[in-house]
Amino acid sequence: MIETTIKSIIHHHASDPTRLLDILLDLQNQFGYLSAETITQTADLLDIPVTRVQGVVAFYNFLYAKPVGRYRILLSNCIIDTMHGALAVMDQFCQQLGIKPDQLRSDGKVSIAETSCSGFCDQGPAALINGVAIASLNSQRIASIVNLIENDTPLKDWPAELFQRPDNIQLPGYLLKQAITPGSAISSLLSRGTQATLDEIEQSALRGCGGAGFPTASKWRYCRDAEARQHYVVCNADEGEPGTFKDRVLLNQFADQMFEGMTICARIIGARQGFVYLRGEYLYLKDKLQQIIDERTANHWLGNDIAGVTGFDFEIKIRLGAGAYICGEESALLESLEGKRGIPRIRPPFPVTHGYLNQPTVVNNVETFATAAKIALEGSQPFNQQGTANSPGSRLLSVAGDCTHPGIYEYPFGTRIDQILDDCRAENTLCVQIGGPSGTMIAEADFHRHISFEDLPTGGSFIVFNGTRDPLEIAGNFVAFFAHENCGFCTPCRVGTTLMKNTLSKINSGSGSQDDIAELHQLCELISKNSHCGLGQTAPNPVMDTLACFAERYQAKVNNRTFTPDIDLEAALQEARQLTGRDDPAAHLDQFNE
Amino acid sequence: MTTSTAKINIATTSLAGCFGCHMSLLDIDERIQDLAEVAVFDRSPFTDIKHCNQSDIGLIEGGVCNAENVHVLREFRKQCNILIAVGACAINGGIPALRNNIPLKECLEESYIDGLGVVNPQIPNDPELPLILDKVYPIHEIVKIDYSLPGCPPSADAICAFITDLLAGREPTLPDELIHYD
Question: Which residue in A157, A415, A422, A442 is deepest, having the highest Cβ count within 10 Å?
Answer without folding.
Answer: A415
